[in-house]
Amino acid sequence: MALSKPSIYLRLGILGALCTPLLIVVLQGLGHEVHLWGCPLKALVGIPCPTWGMTRAVFAIANRQWSTAMHHHLLSPLVILLWAIALGQICAEVVTQRIWSRWWQRRPLWLSGLALMFGYHGLRLYGLWTTGVLATDMQQSFLSHLL
User: Fold this and answer.
1) Residue 101: what are its φ and ψ, rounded to 5°?
2) Model's pTM, two decimal places?
3) 57 vs 66: CA distance, rounded Å
4) Which residues of the chain have pLDDT under 50?
5) What integer best gives the mean pLDDT of the chain?
6) pLDDT score at 21
7) Nearest to 9 by CA among 86, 89, 93, 87
8) Which of 70, 100, 129, 130 could form a disulfide with 134 if both were Cys (CB 3.0 to 4.6 A apart)?
């Protein structure tokens, strides 16, 4: 199926968004210091989001520090694999101007991924709760100071 002009522009925008982490890794590799925002959910309510640690894990993978990456976020290799597949597919679709696959539209794939991500996140939050770190972070959050 041929892509329309708006579909090509959408894919170019997605391609730009997918290339942003790669650009940051390259810039850091060249010695430039790149400052990223912290987790907005954690700042607001004190609870880290499900992707908590993913940025650090991606940078660790880029530096071939796999054990450090797994420490930051266990699902980071899977995310890198899916990112590479999406990047390759979108590049191929832009070059050929044809849709190759609609794997991202499969509901069971999304539901399985969300269950895996939120299950892992729940385990991590439980670990923070049992150590008391989560309660402390919630007390120090922006919302807590407002109330």
Assistant:
1) -160, 155
2) 0.78
3) 8
4) none
5) 89
6) 82
7) 93
8) 129
